[in-house]
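A reminder from the course coordinator: this example appears on the midterm review sheet, so study it carefully.

Given structure:
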């Protein structure tokens, strides 16, 4: 039999899905599991969004549509980014795709050549280095370390840029650490990008889930709209994970290139979800604000509780909905603790190495379950006291 193309062997999966499968298996055996492994909000889209979807399907909005996305949605996205991020973006600079991941992979396919070096955060979203390698390029990690508050070290990034470096990918607020890149860090990244003629992929999927201040996008810095691709979408901010709707904002010639890739692959995102997404952006019930407020309460509750557990250490995230916990002082490996938590305590979390080598002493908990479940999870974690004994020694 002929072999599968070698690029596939360069790809990796996502740790969260493996833990989720095992957690489901335990549930089938009758065990109670608190799911804190997937980055999937327990919220659902606001009622007017669901109504808009229903109406759109009933009205026959189920046709092939523009490969770039329907014009009213692209217009609405440009206005939304002006209102929420003060960005100057035209509808011609917007391309709609089925999910942020698809927008991301289209951008990467359009911009990255085999042999290129691509800077990716460590820890970070595992798809960045995976898809980079799948394109025949080399993923070069830059650290987001606890001693720096999980902020990028610009000297490290500068030292890792070579003549082959073409692209820098980052995600602020960051999955998994929850760190938000400061304006100063963005300015320094922008300077490096100008100096070395780099593309910037700015994954802003958590931009709305921010616990203080206003979101700063690198796109708004002088000269950066020419070399930046913003990735964003509806999965997290509007709790629409399964709707599969995301978008990229890019210079028009990059959108043209991505558009050709759309035509050669999935043709278009579903029309009815795009129609309903306009309603999501309108946010007539202020659902986003309410959701972020709830995430803030969950963060304060859970991070506070974790810091009371011997051997656990967790900085309070500035955005996104994850708790990134250092467990080194428990004396156990993060994988062992994740296993113990799942198998004995019924709490599903992910060992941090799934997000890169810098995550090896960490666990990621997603704050996507109600507060009473988070309280229950904290109690269960405390009850599994094996590592406490190790700490006490
Ligand atoms: C940083 C980051 N980018 C992209 C995605 C994927 O988004 P989507 O579900 O819209 O494809 C995720 C999902 O977890 C994410 O954490």
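Designed residues:
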């Amino acid at each position: 039999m002929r072999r599968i193309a070698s690029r596939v062997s360069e790809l990796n999966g996502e740790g969260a899905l493996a833990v989720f499968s095992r957690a489901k298996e335990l549930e089938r055996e009758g065990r109670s599991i608190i799911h804190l492994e997937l980055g999937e909000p327990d919220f659902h889209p606001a009622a007017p969004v669901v109504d808009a979807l229903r109406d759109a399907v009933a009205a026959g909005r189920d046709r092939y549509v523009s490969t770039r996305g329907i014009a009213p949605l692209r217009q609405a996205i440009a206005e939304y980014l002006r209102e929420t991020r003060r960005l100057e973006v035209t509808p011609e600079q917007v391309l709609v795709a089925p999910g942020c991941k698809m927008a991301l992979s289209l951008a990467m396919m359009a911009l990255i050549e085999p042999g290129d070096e691509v800077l990716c955060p460590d820890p970070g979203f595992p798809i960045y280095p995976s898809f980079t390698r799948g394109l025949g390029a080399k993923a070069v990690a830059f650290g987001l370390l606890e001693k720096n508050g999980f902020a990028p070290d610009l000297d490290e990034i500068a030292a890792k840029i070579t003549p082959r470096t073409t692209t820098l990918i980052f995600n602020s607020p960051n999955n998994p650490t929850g760190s938000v890149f400061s304006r100063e860090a963005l300015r320094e990244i922008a300077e490096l990008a100008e100096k070395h003629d780099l593309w910037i992929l700015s994954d802003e999927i958590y931009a709305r889930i921010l616990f203080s201040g206003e979101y700063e996008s690198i796109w708004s810095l002088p000269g950066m709209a020419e070399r930046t691709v913003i990735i964003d979408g509806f999965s997290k901010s509007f709790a629409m994970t399964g709707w599969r709707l995301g978008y990229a904002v890019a210079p028009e010639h990059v959108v043209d290139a991505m558009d050709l890739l759309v035509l050669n692959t999935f043709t278009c995102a579903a029309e009815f979800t795009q129609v309903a997404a306009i309603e999501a952006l309108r946010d007539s019930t202020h659902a986003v604000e309410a959701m972020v407020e709830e995430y803030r309460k969950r963060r304060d509750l859970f991070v506070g509780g974790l810091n009371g557990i011997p051997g656990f250490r967790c900085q309070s995230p500035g955005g996104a909905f994850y708790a990134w916990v250092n467990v080194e002082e428990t004396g156990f490996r993060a994988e062992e603790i994740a296993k113990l938590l799942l198998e004995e305590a019924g709490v599903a979390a992910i060992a941090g190495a799934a997000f890169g080598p810098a995550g090896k002493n960490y666990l990621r908990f997603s704050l996507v379950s109600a507060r009473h479940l988070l309280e229950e999870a904290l109690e269960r974690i405390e009850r599994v006291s094996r590592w406490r004994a190790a700490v006490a020694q």
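The mean pLDDT is 96. The longest helix spans residues 287-307.
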